[in-house]
Each structure stands twice: as structure tokens, then as C-alpha cells.
Amino acid sequence: MTILKAVLLLLILGSISCSDARKSIKIKGSDTEVNLAVNLAEHFHEADKNFVLSVSGGGSGLGIASLLNGQADITNSSRPLTEEEITLFRKKNIELRTVIFAEDATAFIAHPEFPLDTLSADLLSKIMSGEYRSWLPVTGQDIPITIYGRQSNSGTHSFIKNKLGIEFSRDAKEMNGNAQILESVKQDISGIGYVGAGYIFSENAHNANRKVKVLKIAGKNQRAISPLDKTAIQNHSYYFQRPLFQFIPLESWEKVQPFLNYETSKAGQELIEKDGYYTIK
Q1: If 232 and its partner were Cys, which of 40, 72, 113, 237 is the partner (CB 3.0–4.6 Å)?
Q2: Bridge partner residues of 28 (DSSP)
């Protein structure tokens, strides 16, 4: 499912007239989750055409801001709320409910000719922080490192930064989403980036994604594991895996219940797994 399709779904489903506003659900937020959210919304709409759904990405931070501004019923987020955000919701007297509906792994990707198959978390810290500006101490190739990442309002950006305990290099290129990072890394022999493993898994993105190298990551005191190793992730063995959140204002809770019920149904769970994400066991 492409971002373009997400936009088309927003336009097509959003154009359907609906006399009952309670049947209109606006979902915004994480680009990590947007393809999955579009797929779930599309299939839910097919099952119950009384509901009009619009889905858009833009990042977890943008989705959370949309909740604060009363512009969303559900925010998808690849990170928990910050203390600052919690305070803002309290000041506005907005009560939220939180749902963890799936798990995801973050994949680090490199050019297909990248000479290594594995990087350690310690090496990633030096690379992503800009301590290493050349690949020389890593691969023996004296070429500059180009980092492709996300903007600071991205939940994935925050997740990687906190997991590695770093500030990102000021030279890191800030991209709009998974697709842009992937296309950039695919064409840059010096590039490294990170995307949701679900995006790599997605059948709809398969042809676009097969030309990058997905790196195995050795966490601290851990063996090297691929983010595409479903068994390892189900065992919580991969260093960069995390829950995926949905934040819902209390005033929207009743309205969105049918959609949330669909997510946890057999059909919804199958879609989550088919898209390369992991169901909550």
C-alpha cells in the first residue's frame, strides 16, 4: 500500500456523503503505520459501508498535534506520549485512551553493494550520531557516510535516538517517509537509513524494496538478528522492535469501537500479519 494510495483513500472515502457525523472516522499520524492503517480502513469500509474513513500520515508528532486541535479521532503513533504532550492534553481537558494494536521492527537498510551484512548497536551509535563521518573504520572504504532519516516529529526518529542514546548527526538528511528513505538509500552507495520492517514486508512494496540490503543488527550482548526474522521478533529478541500505539479521545471512543473491534477480529489480525507487522499475543 503506497502513500499515494493512502491519499487516494482519503479522497475517495472522504468524498462519500454521510448524513450521520458519528460514522465519519479521521485517522492521522505515524508513517510507520500508515500503510497498515489504510489497509485496515479499506477492508473495514468494505465490511461496513456506513462508515466513512480518512487516513493520512505525516508522523506521530503531527498526529498527536491533530488530536490536540480536535482534528482526529484516532492518532497512530510509533512512540508513547511525551511528558510535555501529556501536560498539554491535561491543560485542554482532553482525556485519551490508549490502544496497543500491533508491534513493529525498525529495519536499517543500506545500498545493495554495501559490503557488510551486520552492524552492532555500538557501531550504529557512532554512525548515526556523526562520530564516524566516513565508512573507513567500519568497512575499510574511505567514502563519506550519508544518513537518511526522519524529521524530529517522527516517532521512529525518537525511537532510534532514544534506543541508541544519541543525538542525530546534524548532517543527517531528513526525509518525509519510508518510501523516500528507501529510494535514496537504493541509489546511494554511501547511504544508510531506517524504515519500518512492515514496509519492507509489504507485498505491495515488494518490487520497490528488493534492491536494498536489510542489515542484521547485533544489540548489546545479543546475537545479530534480522528485522525480517519473524520468529526472533515474536520472541522479543530484536534490538529495534517496539509497540505501535493508537491514541483516542474519550469523546471519539464509542464512535471508533467498530473499527477497533475489526482490528482485533480474525480478519484484522490476518491483515496485520500479512502487512509484515506483529499481532499482540
Answers
A1: 237
A2: 56, 75
- Bridge partner residues of 105 (DSSP): 241
User: H or E segment at 52?
Assistant: strand 52-58
Distance CA(96)–CA(116), nearest Å, equals 44
Domains and CATH numbers, the chain: 3-103+243-274 (3.40.190.10), 105-234 (3.40.190.10)
Match 521492527 to its residue by C-alpha cell: 105
* Chain segment 206-227, per-residue pLDDT in tens: 555 558 999 999 987 789 999 9
- Cα gap 24→22, rounded to integer Å: 6
Alpha-carbon distance 74 to 83, whole Å? 20
Burial label for 73, CB within 10 Å (0-12, 13-18, 19+), is buried
Element spanning 7, H or E: helix 3-14
Contacts 24+ apart (CB under 8 A), 263-269: 263/40, 263/101, 264/101, 267/43, 267/47, 268/40, 268/43, 268/44
With 50 as the cut, is the pLDDT of residue 3 above it? no
For the chain, the residue count is 281
Neighbour-count burial for 209-229, b at 16+ CB within 10 Å, e otherwise: beebbbbbbbbeeeeebbbbe
- Residue 203 clears pLDDT 70, i.e. is over it: no
Residues ≥6 apart with Cβ < 8 Å to 173: 146, 147, 148, 149, 184
